[in-house]
Amino acid sequence: MNPQVNKVIHPNKRRKWSLDKKEALEGYGFVAPWFIGFLIFTAGPLLFSLYASFTNYDITSRMDFIGFDNYKRMFTEDPLFWKSLRNTLYYVALAVPLTTMGSVILAVLLNVKIPGMRWFRTIYYLPTVLSGVAVYMLWMMLLNPESGLINTVLGWIGIEGPAWLTDPAWTKNAIVMMKMWAVGGGMLLFLAALQGVSDHLYEAAEIDGASSIRKLWHITVPMITPVIFFDVVTSLIGGFQIFQEGYVMADDPGAPGSPANSLLFFNLHMFLKAFKIFDMGYAMAMAWFLFIIAIIVTIINMVMSKYWVHYEGGDSR
After folding, report:
1. What share of the chain has pLDDT > 70, as a percent?
2. Average pLDDT value for residue range 89-109
3. Which of 140, 163, 146 is nearest to 245 (CA)?
4. Are 179 and 95 contacting, i.e. CB atoms less than 8 angstroms apart?
5. What letter does residue 55 receive in the DSSP assignment?
6. Distance, CA of 162 to CA of 143 (rounded, Å)
7. Residue 260 predicted with pLDDT over 90
8. Is 93 in contact with 271 (CB distance < 8 Å)?
9. How many CA atoms, within 13 angstroms, populate the side-chain half-sphere of residue 12?
């Protein structure tokens, strides 16, 4: 009887194995274009840039291995490296919390059920879909110290407006103010999170006599902390990559980052090293240093999130 059972079972096992193998091959076939593209356009250039950061690569003729000389020069011989790093850290420290808080406040205000609210949501979201360079040119006109609309309005109420983009003390603050104008993207994210907060929580709080501020602080904010965490992490990573503002909105078009290098952000300094004087090896060393900073900041956020990020199940993860 055993031989007969084997004759019946083994063909089925072979057919099942063939079917599983076919499905696996089909799956690999669908994944293959992405995987090949990842190797060619992401992993390959990433590894090449890591190696090039230890060379004197100039794109055209040189690529000699020089060890840690680029990193040594970055920390000890390039004063603009520290200037660009301070500019970037200042911008990130100011822009990220302000834009996050602005997005949350705007989302709370636009979460009210009144007629015409959809139009207001659309109006506040529109700045995020406008072209970057066009927006920068618009703000350069608005921030003009002599004829700009902002200083004109300030003059109407007796305030002398600063020389926004021509005074090194105000340039980064002007960029942050411009970023506050475009918080509609974050607003949409938080608005979706607010719509998922159960009304029963607010009803129970009202029965207990909680005020609007207490409901906001003890119900609304804790319930959307996962989205706040996501926004903070992505905003930090994006903030470290700021580039166009310093390149386009410079006081002197021939000197990106002006005036007095107050808008010389880290990515802009790296870009100038790479494509203005073709010191590509040094620029790639800067890129890896920035990558390490972003990784460290992200890890710190991940570790600290367990103390303030709350999920629906009641656990902080």
Report:
1. 93
2. 95
3. 140
4. yes
5. B
6. 9
7. yes
8. no
9. 5
